[in-house]
Design brief:
15 helices, 79% helix, disordered N terminus
């Protein structure tokens, strides 16, 4: 019978993922207005840009650039606003959307700088794996009979490596903003906090919060293609708008869930002790982040 039992790590993925998804939204329900206002406002920008880009006939870079610029707030400002809106809901501070928006401006620079670190940590190993794949396919080619097997093996390696790296760096923006940790140090602390059993907790939250919006958006786009409402050949050229919509769908579930995990599992004292144990060589390089935060604080005073 033990052979039929579900492995413990799979139980942790499902249990922790579903728990933090439910708990995060239970806390959001206490003060849902700022969070939902930001979700729908940023989603409206991407939807409006997609609508204009879809119905307009002339297709030139000069005419399309203002439309594509509507997605910039979705990519740049949405996550810090939503993270602080979730924090406000958890703390029951009663803040409205405009004060939350103002308090999120100084954190935009650090959020972008942290994501730049995450991109390096993600794409450098993936790029090295791709070079290994190209080297193997050119210098040690397999027969055509095993070509499909080679693609399956390498595809699995790419997917598993991507999931692993994304899981290990998922907490970095929350540490950078909610724990006031510089970008390089936030990435390192995120790696240290999401090891062992905590890796499966973070992975469970990512899966439970990301898969439902992707499935729903994919089903809606498939139905639109089936009934002739949208055409995928035209959508592929305007994919940035639809990426913005999918991102808002993922953030709707992901940010409350990850903040719930961050609050339950990683206290300020625990994060501080882990940060103090990071070697000096891995300490932050804060120039861009601190300059951006200083400029945005001045902008906040003007506003």
């Amino acid at each position: 019978m033990r052979l039929l039992e579900i492995p413990r790590f799979i139980k942790n993925v499902f249990d922790k993922g579903s728990f933090h998804l439910r708990y995060g939204w239970r806390k959001i329900n206490d003060q849902p207005r700022p969070f939902l206002e930001f979700i729908f406002a940023f989603a409206f920008l991407s939807a409006f840009a997609a609508f204009i880009d879809y119905v307009a006939t002339p297709y030139t870079i000069r005419s399309r650039l203002p439309v594509y610029m509507l997605n910039v707030p979705v990519i740049v400002f949405a996550s810090p606003c939503l993270m602080l809106a979730v924090q406000s809901a958890f703390d029951k501070s009663g803040k409205r959307a405009i004060p939350v928006l103002g308090s999120s401006l100084p954190w935009v620079g650090r959020y972008l700088y942290t994501n730049a670190h995450s991109s390096v940590v993600f794409w450098v190993p993936i790029g090295l794996l791709y070079l290994m794949y190209r080297f193997q396919s050119i210098n040690i080619p397999l027969s055509s009979d095993y070509d499909y097997l080679q693609r399956i093996v390498w595809g699995s390696i790419f997917v598993l490596a991507g999931i692993y790296l994304h899981t290990r760096t998922a907490l970095a923006p929350y540490l950078a903003i909610h724990n006031n940790i510089q970008a390089t140090l936030a990435i390192t602390v995120s790696f240290r906090l999401s090891r062992g059993g905590d890796f499966w907790r973070v992975l469970g939250v990512l899966l439970f919060a990301s898969i439902p919006p992707i499935v729903v958006m994919g089903a809606l786009l498939g139905l639109a293609q089936f009934f002739g409402i949208l055409h995928l050949d035209r959508m592929s050229a305007r994919s940035l708008h639809f990426i913005g919509l999918v991102l808002q769908g993922i953030r709707l579930l992901l940010i409350p869930s990850l903040y719930s995990l961050h609050q339950e599992r990683f206290s300020d004292s625990g994060v501080a002790s882990v940060a103090q144990g990071v070697p000096y060589a891995l300490r932050p390089f804060p120039w861009f982040s601190m300059m951006a935060m200083s400029m945005l604080r001045r902008l906040q005073r003007v506003i």
